[in-house]
Amino acid sequence: MSTTITGVSRSSSVLEKRAQRLLRVANNVVDKAKSAILHKASRSFRANNDRHSCTSTYFDILPVELQVNIFRHCSYHDLLNLRRTSHAFRSLIDVNESNIVREMVELCEFHELSKLFPPPKRRLAPERMQTFYSLKYIYFLRTSHMLCSELAHHLAERAINPTLETFLRRERKELANTAIRTIQASLTTQLYYAYYFIYLAHLRLDFARATLALDYTSHLLPTEPSTLLTTYLHIQREIISTLPSSVLITIHHCMTFLVNTMRLSLSPEHPHNHNDALVCLLLRSHVALKRILEYFLADSGTTRNGGRNLRKAFMEKMQREKEEAELRSPINFGGRDYQPKVKETWFQVAKEEMEKRRLAGHQPELYIFKGIPSVRLGCQLCRDG
Asked: Using one digit for the tens of pLDDT, what is the confidence trace for 267-326?
């Protein structure tokens, strides 16, 4: 009897152990299945299943739309720092880079600039191109916006300060801050279009210069001074003819204000166009707005490093650019005997286009402030010009 009971107890213990082992196996299978389902759900939207793409957090379970929505509120430097955090975040940002940057551009303050400078395209197939938003692209937009904004601040400051000479120092500061911010916000957008025109005209001129250089060395091109100048004006006409009338007037006011401010700064005494050679060199630089901003910084001398070093660095850069221009002088606007004029950059062609569209007599831009004189931005073709 005892032998039978012992045998039954052994059999039951063996079955219990087998059941426990099967239960553990089943639990392991269920856990793996759950992990696989969660991993598949969080990675199904990605094109690349990189082995470092898992951050080992609940962030992986979020849909890609929510992840992009989170990343788009980060700044450019925040994304760079996040990419350096781990392989997981780097892979996550790289895989969804185009979607993240696209959302960032739509939210950023320089969204208008992205319309003038659309993102580049990359080839996905022999006959298929796709627009790609990259971190390099938003860096270009950001630096361009900062350039235009800072230059607009200096222009607004030079327009407002002369009108406040009769005010006390404290009153002058309070009134100036409000007026400068208002003018700066408007000028920044206008400088976007000026930057677009100068940038595009310079790119096309470089291409035309290279073509003319090949023809020149082959003795197929005459050496008259007007050869490259005619090409330069033709390039400007092609660009300006595509601009809407409202944008054309806005850029013309902005360019007039920019050149007049430089003239007054370079030649405070009459005649103010005495140093137009330097103004021409600045306008025809491959980084025109940057050079103009450097000039204003050097001229003001209000930075923490002082104005002396800035003036020295600015003059060195301008001297190098002048020497480079002279090296290209046999084909650069007709040679050494030719003296470029300010009107040949924008103004001559813009005036012709505005007269062609019958835009003469348009309204100037007035900035009216309480307690201080108003500021007028206009041109010779304005109604009271």
From this structure: 888 888 888 888 888 888 888 898 899 888 887 755 545 556 666 677 777 677 666 665
Residue 69, token pair as written in the block = 């929505």
Residue 248 has pLDDT above 80, yes or no: yes
Instruction: Please work out, in degrees rounded to the nearest 5, the angle formed at the alpha carbon of residue 324 by the alpha carbons of 320 and 325.
Output: 115
Helix axis angle, 307-327 relative to 288-300, nearest 10°? 150
Q: What is the pLDDT of residue 17?
A: 73
**Token code pair at residue 272:** 């103010």
Contacts of 305 (CB under 8 A, 6+ apart): none
Residue 5, C-beta contacts closer than 8 angstroms, at least 6 positions apart: none
The per-residue DSSP string of 38-69 comes to HHHHHHTT-S---TT---SSGGGGS-HHHHHH
Q: Count CA within 13 A, CB hemisphere, residue 374.
A: 8
Burial of 152 (0-12, 13-18, 19+ CB in 10 A): buried
Flag whether pLDDT at 242 surpasses 90: yes
CA–centroid distance for 374 within its chain: 31
What is the DSSP-derived secondary structure letter of residue 335?
A: S
Q: What are the tens digits of pLDDT across the range 6-46?
A: 554 566 676 677 767 777 777 776 677 666 655 555 544 44
| Separation of CA 113 from chain center | 7
Contact 60, 66 (CB under 8 A): no
